[in-house]
Amino acid sequence: MILEVKDVYTSYGHIHALRGVDLVINEGEIISLIGANGAGKSTLLGSIAGIHPTRKGDIFYNGEKITKNRPHQLVKKGISMVVEGRGIFPRLSVEENIRIGAYIINNRQVVHNTMDKIYTLFPRLSERKHQQAGTLSGGEQQMLAIGRALMSQPKLLLLDEPSLGLAPKLVKIIFEMIQTINKEGISILLIEQNANLALSISDRTYVLENGEITLSGASKDLRHHEGIKKAYLGEVLDNTSQEVIQSFQASNL
Questions:
Q1: How far, in Å, are 55, 102, 175, 243 from residue 114 at the CA level?
Q2: What are the Cα distances from residue 98, in Å, to 51, 205, 239?
Q3: pLDDT digits 0-9 by tens, 135-180
Q4: Same domain, 118 and 145
Q5: Buried b vs exposed e over 176-205: b needs ≥16 C-beta within 10 Å?
Q6: Any domain includes 166
Q7: How many CA atoms lie within 13 A of 127 on its CB side?
Q8: 119 and 200: one domain?
Q9: pTM recorded for the entire structure
Q10: How confident is the model over 188-206, as pLDDT tens digits?
C-alpha cells in the first residue's frame, strides 16, 4: 500500500467538502476518482497533496503519517500533483518550466538524465524546448505540466482532469502517456471528467458524491454497474474516445 486516506474531513469555512473519506492506493495501481462537479474530487487531491488542510482524519504515505505536511515536503517524499488547468508559467520557456519541477534535486546529472526521459516520453516538448510555454497548444501544455511533475521523480502522481479541454486525438496521446508512466512504476490517482476513459484505464475506481465515497471496486466491474452507467456513462463517445477505450481494454487482456 502506497497511500491510505482514513476518515478524512476537509472544509472551506462552513462548507464541508469531504466527509469521512476512505481511500487506498496500492503500489503500481491506477486509481480513478469519478463524480459530479462539486463532489469534492479536487479537494481530495488537494488534501493529499497538502494544499487543502484537513479538519479531521489521517493520510498515510508508505506507512508514514503525512496529514500535516506541506506541499513541498510531500514532493520530497515522492508525491507530485498536476492541477486542473495545468498551472504552467506561460512566459517561461518549455525547458525552464520543466526545470522548475526539479527544484528538490541538487544533482545536475540526475536533472539532466530525468529531463532526457521527459523529452523521450513527450517528443513534442523536446521540439519546443525553447518556445514560450504560453504559446503551446492545450495538449502540449498538459504534456508540459505532467513532464514538470515527473522531474521530481515521484512514486505517486496525482492528476486532476488531464483531458479537460483537449481535442480527442490529444486525449488519446495523453492517456497513452499515463499508461506508459504507470508502467515505469509510478502509482496514479486520476480525476477524469470522461468516466468511460477513467474506468477503462484504471485498476480500481472510487465514486465520490457530496464529499463521501458512495461506491468503489474494480473498474472493469463498475463499468457494468447500473447506477454507474446511468449516472456517468451515458455520454455519446466520439470515435477517438472509443478507440482509446478499446486499446486500453485490449492491453489489459
A1: 37, 9, 21, 31
A2: 21, 30, 33
A3: 999 999 999 999 999 999 999 999 999 988 888 888 888 899 999 9
A4: yes
A5: ebbeebbeeebbbbbbbbbbbbbbbbbbbb
A6: yes
A7: 7
A8: no
A9: 0.90
A10: 999 988 888 899 999 999 9
